Amino acid sequence: MKNVKKENLPQKTCPVCGRPFSWRKKWEKVWHEVKYCSDRCRNNSKKTSG
């Protein structure tokens, strides 16, 4: 992912809030596993599904 402009980064949509979020360097090796845009949304999904 070297030399890729920010507007060309992969995006996903958060299933909790519905907002799009972009690839981040810290997610480089686990991008296929990332579902939520933030810890807040991840925690909210557990509250609503449980």
Automatic annotation (TrEMBL):
Matches recorded under InterPro entries: UCP037205
Pfam families: DUF2256
Highest taxon of source: Bacteria
Name recorded for this polypeptide: DUF2256 domain-containing protein
